[in-house]
Fold these 3 entries.
Entry 1:
Amino acid sequence: MEIKRIHDEDEAFQQLLTNRLRTFNDVHSLHHREIRNTDVPVVQLKVEQDGDMIAGLFGSVYWDWFDLDRLWVASEHVGAGLGSRLLEEGERLARELGATRVKLTTFSFQAKTFYERFGYEVAGVLHDYPPGSDYYMMTKQL
């Protein structure tokens, strides 16, 4: 058997791999199988000023977890409390949707200390990813 390198990005190939992995997961995990046929609730929040978005949060709730995917505040508004307000409201809504825990990722140059102030703990770290920085997975009990 020969290993062939694909030089150009091939979306059909990528989708085939995704489908094969999902099929494997579905066979071995009831939770994966069930989530595929479910509308996963999302939490989406934004803050606008003069018609421009200056902060926002996005995450989804499944398996009793709030997967906090994105929290962003425009740099000129950092320190004004928008991130805190978004995080607290996002957690509140996630609890209403059945979440008992939160998971998120952040880099050392982003918001690790911010999340720690709200009770998040480091569950794992990749050092020097990217070079000179660290990448953290953080969790919290709601």
Note: The mean pLDDT is 95.
Entry 2:
Amino acid sequence: MHIARQREDFHLKTAHKLVKEYDLIAEEYLHIKGLARNTKLSKSIYDVAWGAFIEKLNAVAVKRGVHIIKVNPNHTSHSLQ
């Protein structure tokens, strides 16, 4: 339970920080269950609770009037040249 509370606290603090700093937040639309099922990182994906963070971020953004858009993850990891 201690780790779960720490994770939730981190998620909430990070969500509030992002919402405070930005008027628009773009988040990649990721199929988390599919990623976890098909990669060697599945335990890590579930451990960091990506889905829970996205839910908290969306809730905080709605409360503060910040817009969140979902973007296609294709080509979002390429470095800019």
Note: Residues 50 and 64 are 21 Å apart (CA to CA).
Entry 3:
Amino acid sequence: MTPRITGTGRPAGPAAAGVSVRRATARDAKRLTGLIRSSSAYEGPYAPMIAGYRVGPDYIETHRVFLAAAPDGRILGFYALLLAPPELDLMFVADAAQGLGVGRRLISHMKEEARAAGVRSVRVVSHPPAEGFYLGVGAERVGTVTANPPAVMWDRPELVIRVADAATLRTGPEPHHSRHP
């Protein structure tokens, strides 16, 4: 079934069906950086957080970075999963793909990756406006990461996404505080 197109040019309903998720490669670095820098979620007071931010080929080769691609090859979003300790380090969805199910698709993929790696839960230090999204995909708020000027000027929600329980996995690391500022 082909998704219906709305007046905004966006498919109505869960249009992520034609979206594929694949491992990012070093050649994707510039496009992932562009997606971050064009994010309207980081306008205004949040702009300094991504000013000059870059997803380099070395980052992609070192970490589990996956992207969501449209059938025409456009990158619609991506995430980076760190395993030691387990944390969703980056997650972005292109402005034009917001509300189409791409973020949920990426979270579902991330949970599969984490589960396969033997992880029970993944820490998320959320951009404040994205907290509702994470709660909507099943994350639980566990605290607040306080501002750390000048790198980060605002408090951020700390959440946990459970990917498996003790009965599912023999053992797996629990989330720890990470290197985030």
Note: Residues 1-14, 170-181 have pLDDT under 50 and may be disordered.
